[in-house]
Each structure stands twice: as structure tokens, then as C-alpha cells.
Amino acid sequence: MSKYFGMGDTPWLTWVAALLVVLVIGSAAFAGWALFIYEPAPVSIARVSPVPSPPSPTAIPVVTETPSLPSPTFTPPPVSDTATPTPTETATFTPIPTEPPQVPTPTPQPPSSPSPDTGFGYGINIHLFGQDGQPIADAVNALGFRWVKHQVRWNEIEPKKGEYVWWEVDRLARTCQQANLYLLVSVVTSPNWARNTTEAEGPPANYQDFWNFLAEMAERYDGDGDRDAPDSPRIHAYEIWNEQNLRREWCCDGLSASRYVELLRGAYQTLKRVDPRIIVVSGAPTPTGTDDGVNAIDDRKYLQQMYDAGLRGVCDAIGVHPSGFANPPDALFTGGDYDPARGWDNHPSFFFRNTMEDYHNIIVRNGDNKKLWATEFGWASNDGLGVGSCEGWDYAADVTAQQQADYLVKAYQMAKNWGWAGVMFAWNLNMGTVYGLECPQGEVGRFSILTPDWQPRPAFNALARMSK
């Protein structure tokens, strides 16, 4: 080694050699340290979360024919201290004020509910004009019913030709829309300006005036957002006139089924032109037990005359008023005196079942298959009200409150099982809260399933509990 590291004659070579030896030994030491001793600290690496897959689209529920209804508990409204107004000689609906409240015009909205069909359904007659609509809607929903019927008097809505007072009808339709109820209106009573006489009630001299009114009404309540009432509510069905086989309803150019069908035909065409979804129900004749051709035409005879005049092609359902008087709904008159201890039972007109089955048979004989809509049916009862019968409604004394309840439930069950009945509208929910019980107007309160102070009668509770 002295040969390479000795000082000798070339000392710089010795220093270079020494430096190389140091570098070699240092490199070897560093390599050993790196391989066997050194443990590097972990390096933080940013992790990217994977992009989630888009969620599966939620299936849109198929709209069914019957809207889903809430099931609120009906709470009667507070009883007003205001005395019941003294009734007049003839029952008339509460006049509509001529000045409507100021209602802001909303942005047009699409229809709120699907179109119903003419099949079986649960309905009831109500009176909302001049009343708080919310307790009425709550009561109907507490019953579990889907349909309500309300009378609309043409003479109150168009008191002067071309001038309309809609705001109470607006409120009716909007209340039903908000409560998710279907609405049938029975349109009746010509204004004086449209008639040649003011005696009793009857059709217009010029039927076109009535058709023009229906066109305005249908456009306002077709729910399409164009020229609609506030919130674009819908009226789903129209019954054209009421008990037109009676002189008091069709005065004074002679009772005539053919003239009525003429009025109905134009109404049907007008309504369908504005809104093809509208259900048009023929005006229900009323059972009379008499047939003098002047004051009344037998309702079965009158229905056949309507078919002879072309009824089949100008309506979607057939109206009927199958009054039960004091007879059970499943009782069938076959002749004689059904119960010698009482009256109103010696003619098929006084029996719910007879009327329904007779009408259905007439429909079938005329090659038709339309559903029967009982736009009024029920049983009057004085029981529990602390009053007697009104003249002409003596049979109310022969029906207990519990029988009224049982008969109504049985009638709905029978109609549902028949298969050929459409919507059944019990008469009535709350007429007693409007007219009280004093005769003559108060006879309607004996049919009511709410007392004048908004308490449920046995019929209300029975219908609410009834299986739907």
C-alpha cells in the first residue's frame, strides 16, 4: 500500500488515493444504511371519492279515477246566537248578495283532480251558499264520501241577461277542490227576464238563453286555467233541471217530456263542446203517485216518454229520486196496502227499491246501459228533534232516528251490489242548519243527518262507519 499511499516523490497522488478510499467506504456505508436501517415516513396521497351513480328515477304513480281523500274528524262549528230566520211560504235558497268580495286573480293552475266516471259512488246533498264551507267539507270527508251535490239557481246567478254573479259558485267549487271532492250541480229555475210568466218556476221561453248560461258556467269551471274562476276549480257533473214532471218545476206551457229532452239536448251539446269530460245527468223526475197530466205525470211514464224523445243520446247518466217515505229500502210493493197501520205505502212510487228497479228496467228495455244516479234519496225522521211532522210529510213520524240510519246504510249497500247504480246522493247533510225545523221550510231538516246546531244524528255516525 505504501506504493500508492506513501509520500515518495509524488505526494498529491497519495492524497487522491486516500480521498477515493474515503468515498468508496462512505458510499458503501450509506447504501447499507438506506437498505437495512432507514424507514421512510408515509407520504399523504389525496384520495378522490368515486362519482355516485345517478339515482333510479322514481316511478310516477298512475292517477286513478277516484282521488285520495283525507280522513279528518268532523268537529261541529260553534253554534251561532243568531236566531233561525222565519221561513216564508215556499222554500227558497238563500239569496246571493250582488256584490262579491274582492278576490285576487291567481295564476292559472292545471286541473286539481282526475275526471270521474259514471260508476257507483257515495255522495250527499249539501247547502253551502251563505254558510261557512269548511265545516261542510269536513263533515263530508268525515263520512268518507267522494261526491257532493249542490243546487245552482240560474235566476240568482244571471239576474239580468249577460250579467253574472258567480262568487258563491266560485266558493262552492273552490271548497270542493280544496277538500278533494267531486261536485255535481243541479241547474234549475229560469230568471224572470228569460220567461213569459212569473208564475211558479219553469223553463225559459227561448232555450238558447239557458244554453248560453251553461256555456259561460262550463268555461268558468272547466279547470283549464283559461277564463276560469280563481284557483281554476272544476265542476265535474251537471244535472239538467229537477223534477220536471211536476207543474211546480215546469210551469207553464204544459208538462212535456219531449220539450224537456229538447232542453237537455242543447245543454248536453253545449257542455260537451266546452269540456268533454263533464258528466251530464238527465233531470230526475219525482215519484208522484198520481198522473193527471197537468200537475204531474207519473215518473215511470215520463221516463219512457223521455226515451221516446231521444234521451239515450243526450246524457251520460239517468237521474232518479227514489224516495223511501216510511218504507224500508229493501221493501217491495206488490200491490195492496203494505202496512195498514200507516200511509204512503199503497203505490210503487213510495218504495225505494221499486223506483230503482223500475227505472233500470225501462233503461234496459230501451236498449240502453246507462247508470242510474240517485241525485236525491232519503228518509225523514222527527225522532230526536223535538218537533212533529210538517204537512205533507206526515210519514216522518213513522221513522225513528235509528231506522233512518239503518235505511240509508242499507240503500247504499243495495245500490253498490246491484252493479247498475251510479253515484247515490243522500238527501241531505245540513239543510237543517240552514232552514231550521219550523214548517214549511223545516221539512228538509227532518231528512238532514246533522241537527240544526251541527250535531251528528245517528244516520251521520252510521254512514261514517259504513264500509265503503
How are the strands of the largest sheet arranged?
1-2-3-4-5-6-7-8
Domain tally: 1
Span between N and C termini? 117 Å
What is the CATH architecture descriptor? Alpha-Beta Barrel
How much strand?
5-15%
Mean of all residue-level pLDDT scores: 83
Shape annotation: globular
Largest sheet: 8 strands, parallel, barrel
How many helical stretches?
13
Q: Which percent bin holds the helix content? A: 25-40%
Strand segment count: 8
Rg, rounded, reads 40 Å
CATH superfamily: Glycosidases
Instruction: Give the C-level CATH assignment.
Output: Alpha Beta
Describe, in short, the structure shown:
The protein is an alpha/beta fold and 468 residues long. The chain has helices at residues 2-5, 11-36, 133-143, 154-157, 167-178, 207-220, 257-274, 299-308, 352-365, 401-418, 431-435, 443-447, 458-465, and strands at 121-125, 147-153, 182-188, 237-240, 279-282, 317-320, 372-377, 421-426.
Walkthrough of the structure:
The chain has 468 residues and is an alpha/beta fold. The protein has a single domain, classed as Alpha-Beta Barrel (TIM Barrel), CATH 3.20.20. Strands 1-2-3-4-5-6-7-8 form an 8-stranded parallel barrel, surrounded by 4 helices. Helix 3 links the parallel strand 1 and strand 2. Helix 6 packs parallel to helix 7, helix 8 packs parallel to helix 9 and helix 10 runs parallel beside helix 13. The radius of gyration is 40 Å and the shape is globular.
